[in-house]
């Protein structure tokens, strides 16, 4: 038998043997975005009557209305806070804060906390700033006080709180007092009981700031807007569902059990992990709750939540986060309660 080039193959050998081993490789089927879109389209077409009926329900329309209202109110403050945070990351050197701090650590803690009034930013931005401060030689207690105070006492957050609670102007003063007290107490606690080995050694290495500052500004603002905006949407969804779906008897029961309401709102602040520029509008939407539990929500949220614990563990080390976060949670609740009782009264 002749092959295709005219040569003859040895007799007695099959064609496959003469032509060499034949290998076939089949690529596994990959599920890409086109398949997912097609599947969702089919599901939507099949379930169209049920979807239309569900979305047309009065409860769903009310939830959607509350959700849109929360987002529309909070978005301008969120954008402003993100822009300010990006400007700080790009144009403000942490060395400027170090120069104005007192030499004594105990006195530097409240000064660093008050610096949050002049250097606003969200809690996501305050973690890298605090790391830069420690890397440039700022005492750890002062840097941690700034970390807790900056997201909660800056002008953007306080103005947002005033807009969210127009009928309770005392909420602005109480939030500032509770948050600043939390930052100072935690700074002093760290000065007295904190240990250097609890913070990762890499944190003390100075971080160089290079590159185009406008590019740093744009990237910081984009990152903060995407992360904080997504958290705002999640928080608005949860808050709108709670305000509509939770029976009024439950919230009335929490109003009667004041301390239980405080604990519930504190845990909710940790779980929702809202951006500090927008959390006041979510708290205001929970109008059935007393003011003091909502104040605790606003004091605890910027100080400790699930995303902050992850950021702190990644930046300062797990040993730090495992000790700092639980202590901050307890201190924030106590300081929020104290500020609420003093400024707002038990209501």
Automatic annotation (TrEMBL):
<keyword id="KW-0472">Membrane</keyword>
<feature type="transmembrane region" description="Helical">
    <location>
        <begin position="34"/>
        <end position="51"/>
    </location>
</feature>
<feature type="transmembrane region" description="Helical">
    <location>
        <begin position="171"/>
        <end position="190"/>
    </location>
</feature>
<dbReference type="Pfam" id="PF03773">
    <property type="entry name" value="ArsP_1"/>
</dbReference>
<feature type="transmembrane region" description="Helical">
    <location>
        <begin position="63"/>
        <end position="92"/>
    </location>
</feature>
<feature type="transmembrane region" description="Helical">
    <location>
        <begin position="282"/>
        <end position="304"/>
    </location>
</feature>
<feature type="transmembrane region" description="Helical">
    <location>
        <begin position="225"/>
        <end position="246"/>
    </location>
</feature>
<keyword id="KW-0812">Transmembrane</keyword>
<dbReference type="InterPro" id="IPR005524">
    <property type="entry name" value="DUF318"/>
</dbReference>
<dbReference type="InterPro" id="IPR052923">
    <property type="entry name" value="UPF0718"/>
</dbReference>
<keyword id="KW-1133">Transmembrane helix</keyword>
<feature type="transmembrane region" description="Helical">
    <location>
        <begin position="324"/>
        <end position="346"/>
    </location>
</feature>
<keyword id="KW-1003">Cell membrane</keyword>
<feature type="transmembrane region" description="Helical">
    <location>
        <begin position="258"/>
        <end position="275"/>
    </location>
</feature>
<protein>
    <submittedName>
        <fullName>Permease</fullName>
    </submittedName>
</protein>
<feature type="region of interest" description="Disordered">
    <location>
        <begin position="1"/>
        <end position="24"/>
    </location>
</feature>
<comment type="similarity">
    <text>Belongs to the UPF0718 family.</text>
</comment>
<dbReference type="GO" id="GO:0005886">
    <property type="term" value="C:plasma membrane"/>
</dbReference>
<feature type="transmembrane region" description="Helical">
    <location>
        <begin position="141"/>
        <end position="165"/>
    </location>
</feature>
């Amino acid at each position: 038998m002749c092959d295709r080039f005219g040569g003859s193959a040895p007799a007695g050998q099959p064609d496959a043997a003469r032509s060499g081993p034949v290998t076939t490789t089949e690529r596994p089927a990959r599920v890409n975005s086109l398949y997912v879109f097609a599947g969702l389209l089919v599901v939507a077409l099949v379930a169209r009557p049920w979807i239309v009926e569900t979305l047309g329900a009065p409860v769903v329309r009310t939830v959607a209305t509350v959700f849109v209202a929360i987002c529309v109110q909070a978005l301008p403050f969120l954008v402003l806070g993100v822009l300010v945070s990006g400007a700080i990351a790009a144009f403000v050197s942490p060395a400027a804060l170090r120069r104005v701090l007192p030499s004594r650590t105990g006195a530097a803690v409240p000064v660093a906390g008050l610096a949050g009034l002049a250097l606003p930013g969200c809690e996501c931005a305050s973690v890298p700033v605090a790391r830069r401060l420690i890397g440039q030689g700022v005492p750890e207690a002062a840097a941690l006080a700034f970390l807790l105070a900056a997201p909660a006492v800056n002008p953007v957050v306080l103005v947002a709180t005033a807009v969210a609670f127009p009928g309770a102007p005392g909420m602005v003063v109480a939030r500032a007092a509770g948050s600043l007290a939390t930052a100072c107490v935690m700074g002093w606690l760290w000065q007295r009981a904190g240990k250097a080995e609890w913070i990762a050694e890499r944190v003390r290495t100075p971080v160089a700031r290079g590159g185009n500052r406008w590019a740093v500004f744009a990237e910081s603002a984009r990152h903060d807007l995407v992360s904080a905006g997504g958290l705002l949407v999640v928080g608005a969804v949860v808050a709108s569902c709670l305000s509509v779906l939770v029976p009024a008897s439950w919230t009335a029961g929490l109003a009667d059990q004041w301390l239980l309401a405080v604990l519930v709102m504190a845990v909710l602040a940790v779980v929702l992990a809202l951006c500090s520029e927008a959390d006041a509008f979510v708290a205001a939407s929970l109008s059935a709750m007393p003011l003091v539990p909502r104040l605790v929500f606003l004091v605890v949220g910027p100080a400790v939540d699930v995303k902050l614990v992850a950021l702190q563990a990644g930046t300062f080390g797990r040993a730090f986060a495992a000790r700092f976060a639980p202590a901050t949670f307890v201190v924030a609740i106590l300081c929020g309660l104290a500020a609420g009782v003093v400024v707002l009264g038990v209501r």
